[in-house]
Amino acid sequence: MADEPLVLGIETSCDETGVGIVRGHTLLADAVASSVEEHARYGGVVPEVASRAHLEAMVPTIQRALKDAGIAASDLDGIAVTAGPGLSGALLVGVSAAKAYAYALGKPLYGVNHLASHICVDQLEHGALPEPTMALLVSGGHSSLLLAPDITSDVRPLGSTIDDAAGEAFDKVARVLNLGFPGGPVIDRWAREGDPGAIAFPRGLTGPRDPIYDFSFSGLKTAVARWIEAKRNAGEEVPVADVSASFQEAVVDVLTRKAVRACKDNGVDHLMIGGGVAANSRLRAMAGRRCEDAGIRLRVPRPKLCTDNGAMVAALGAEMVARGRAASSWDLSADSSLPVTHTHVPGEPGHEHGHGHEHSREHAHDHDHFHELSKENLYS
Ligand code: KG4
Ligand code: ZN
């Protein structure tokens, strides 16, 4: 237990400043500062607002995580950070902070993939992931089906959304219904009072010639908006509960159908679901039923671990350390469109900084720019 890697993870890809600390599969701290309320009045995440909020929250959130975990930064075996995908300005704040701390403390730095982290976090809840793992990731920014033979080095995209992400569809429909932002939780609540069969909304990409594992939610969103508009134009009241339930049913039906199909086709007997939409009560219920019918074991982390957080980054970082994966080099940069196949960003052979304590003058020169960026944060 005590010899498992102790890793701090930093996540700033969107609007949550997350700092988590884990020892192997054990969660020690999960500090999150969200700027979601600052975005609410815009109906979506504003990148500049998010970056600024990360900058302000970063150091206090790191300090809170260290305090919650009851450890000193010098005890750490490594520092992991989301290198992408995500909003570039937002990612940059996390990457700069991680570099500054890793460099100052003499610890190895691991730039990791946000999507792989969403999968890996389940180890903190349900123990080691079986290999391969089948994952359905659904959030405001992504909707993907991923097959992961090795979460630290081999993640294969089977399909993803060709337009809106699932959470984005929830957010947009909620906006049309004047329910506020983010839309997922409030639609989930309204749907409980409604009839999921009241309105037959379209199931995107489920025709015989459609790609089996890809998703599309844009047509559904438009269909819902048109249906509401027609009601309003006719001077009739919009049945919010029925619309919510019927819309949600269409999303959840497609997600679970395709995920179960992916498991069966690939001979995988379990499914993990992650991302903010995994908090959806109907998704959990329908996935549970359909997986049981198909003899598939379902793994869904608790909601706080499903939404963006630092613990998921720490979990993947710890796995990188445990499996001896190469650390990132000091010139690690944020990559807003880091492909999911890049589970982490290893340094070039010969340019690795290995396990800290090897800082050359050369390195120090290379990285003046990030020291500039983060000095303020570190010492204020
Ligand atoms: O993972 P997350 O916190 O951030 C990223 O987008 O990466 O996911 C946020 C998304 C939002 O679109 C939100 O509406 C959705 O997750 N969400 C939900 C629920 N809770 C959050 N969608 C459906 N049902 C929910 N209960
Ligand atoms: Zn995410």
Automatic annotation (TrEMBL):
Its recorded reaction(s) are: L-threonylcarbamoyladenylate + adenosine(37) in tRNA = N(6)-L-threonylcarbamoyladenosine(37) in tRNA + AMP + H(+)
One GO MF annotation is:
tRNA N(6)-L-threonylcarbamoyladenine synthase activity
Record field: compositional bias (Low complexity): 333-348
Q: Domain Gcp-like: where?
A: 27-314
**What broad class describes the main subcellular location of this protein?**
cytoplasm
Where located? Cytoplasm
Query: Where do the segments described as Disordered lie?
Result: 333-380
Q: Describe the family membership recorded for this protein in Swiss-Prot or TrEMBL.
A: Belongs to the KAE1 / TsaD family.
What is the designated name of this protein?
tRNA N6-adenosine threonylcarbamoyltransferase
This protein's gene is called: tsaD
